Every structure is written in C-alpha cells, then in structure tokens.
Amino acid sequence: MAFSSLPLVHDTPPADLDAEIRRLKRERNAVLLAHFYQESEIQDLADHIGDSLELSRAAARTEADVIVFAGVHFMAETAKILNPERTVVVPDLKAGCSLADGCPVDRFKAWRAQYPGAVAVTYINCSAAVKAESDYICTSSNAVKIVSSIPKDKQVLFAPDRNLGLFVAKETGRELVLWPGSCIVHETFSLRKLEALLLEHPRAKLIAHPECEQPLLERAAFIGSTAALLRFVQTDDAPAYIVATESGILHQMRRKAPGKQFIAAPPEANCACNECPFMRLNTPEKVYRALRDLSPAVELDPELRQRARIPIDRMLALS
Ligand code: 13P
Ligand code: SF4
After folding, report:
1. pLDDT single digits (tens) 50-99
2. Residue 164 Cα, ligand 2 centroid: separation in angstroms?
C-alpha cells in the first residue's frame, strides 16, 4: 500500500470531541451558530440555534473573532457579508441548498430583465451573486412583511422558492411573479401518508413550513418558519404535532415542549428524505476541524459583498 493512502494520524478526532470543541471556541474567541436542521449533537454545542433570520441577526451582532456556521453555504455567506472583517468558517463547503443551486445568477438576471421596473424580493436561500442583483432579501419569518411593505402599484418578483411565493401571495393578496424553484426536502412529504397519520392521531395538529406544497399547507393548522413552528408548539394546547419540515427541528421541540408528542411528517418514499442532505453533511468532527484549522473559510469579492449587503440590510431594517 502506498504510504500516502494511509489515514492521517493527526486527523483522528480527539476522544472527548465536545470538550475539545468548547476549548477551541474559547481559544479562538469563536461563536458557533447552528440552524435548527443540524443534527442534535451540533445543536447542543452551539452558542446560538435559530432559523435563518435569527442566525443572520446573531451574525450581525456578534463580537467574536471567528464565526463557525453550522448550516448551509448561503447562510455562512450571509454571515460573511455582514462581517467582512471576521473569519467565517463552515464545517463542509459542499453543504449547499437545492433552492440556491436552482437559481444561478445569469438566469436570475435574464428573468429580472423581462420585468423592467419590478421589485425583486429574494429568499435568503440564494447565492451572494443573486443577493447582489436583488432589491430585498427575505426569510420565511419575514417574507409576508417584506412584500407587504412594497407599494401596491409595484410589480413584485419572488425567487427562488415557488411554494413560499404562493404562500406569501395568498397572505398578502398580492400577485407575485414567481421563479419556478423548490426545496427537495419540503416537496418530499406524502399527503397520502399524512392523512393516514392524522386519522391515527386524531388529537395531533399538522404544522408546516411554507416551503411545503400547497395541498399540504391547506391541511395545516399552522404554517411558519422553523422558529415560528417552535414557538407555536410551546404556546398551543394540542398534545401532539405532525411536523412537516426538516426533522432536525424536533430536537428543540422535544426540549422546549416536553410532555408533548412530535411526529416527523413522512416522505412518500421509504427514505430519510425529510433530512436535508446538505445540512446533514455537517458533523461534530467537521465542526472540530473547522475550529482547529480555521478552514474552510468563506471568502467573497469585496465589491460583490458590498452589493449583496444592501438588500440584506433592507431586510434587517424592516424585520
Ligand atoms: P427557516 O427560515 O425556517 O430557517 O428555513 C430555512 C430553510 O432552509 C428551510 O428549508
Ligand atoms: Fe435548502 Fe431545502 Fe435544505 Fe433548506 S431544507 S437548506 S431549502 S435544500
């Protein structure tokens, strides 16, 4: 066997990985931000757990020298746009997003150009390049508010999630021009299996993320971002919930509302497709290595970063 194919001895993770991550966080003056869709071990190590909006806010106000972003690439990019002087690292650079990947900047620009004078509201699940071509960024928490703030005589373009766009159109009564994108996780749920589950658990409520398809949303007792879903189960009085979003959120639901039952909405196929394959590329071992090596780091062209910041700042000011 060639020597170079042997595993690197120094890359073996330490026996007490959690303690080592906590030690490195102190040594690096680092903050660990984790999205609700991260595996529970990463959530338990995080300084802030939240939805896309809460994590953008946490990134905007941090004083740490290093931000370790346990989420997907567009989230870490947003943190870098808000913190050009800080080091932003990710556990795995390949953690992308089907929505961001399905909306390349050249196609987005060509689409926009068909609607001169229209206002482009873009979901935060997009690249920095697409952000730089947008008027407003929104998240699932504030999309309704952002679209409502735009004068009624303006045509509004909404990209890249069609399902969220349809939900916003319904809530605001506005006609939106929609980009035809969707999330591979939120389109996986089976309405047929959900109906059967609701019959099996008659006291359970179906709650859903607005990235789900319309027929499912029409059956839901509550629709909201991951943070809104988490708040809802803490204040609502149902004993059980069927949760139609990435199953990582169930960890915080069980913690914040003990005694209630949480059932992950089932995908049509017999697979773990209600776990985001991009989010789940991150592991505690990769968080440890990112902190140890300060790599992989997110870097952005300064001119692009400045342009991408404008619609993000508009969103933060409005929400
Ligand atoms: P939140 O806005 O709820 O964080 O959703 C982000 C996301 O990627 C949903 O799939
Ligand atoms: Fe993107 Fe969907 Fe994964 Fe969210 S769950 S990061 S929208 S692929």
Report:
1. 999 999 999 999 999 999 999 999 999 999 999 999 999 999 999 999 99
2. 12
CATH of the domain at 215: 3.40.50.10800
Same domain for 171 and 195, yes or no, is no
Q: What is the DSSP string of 180-225?
A: -B--TTTT-B-HHHHHHHHHHSTTEEEEE-TTS-HHHHHH-SEE--
The pTM for the full model equals 0.94
Mutate to test the pocket of ligand 2, among 183, 186, 209, 249 (most ligand atoms within 8 A of CB): 183
In this prediction, residues 300-306 reach a mean pLDDT of: 98
Ligand 2 contact via 76 beta carbon (within 6 Å): no
Which one of the ligands is nearest to 34 CA? 1
Provide the residue range defining the domain that includes 127.
99-178
Domain count, the chain: 3
What's the distance, Cα to Cα, between the start and end of the chain in Å? Answer: 58
Decide: 185 in ligand 2 pocket, CB within 6 A: yes
| Structure confidence by residue, pLDDT tens digits, 228-277 | 999 999 999 999 999 999 999 999 999 999 999 999 999 988 888 899 99
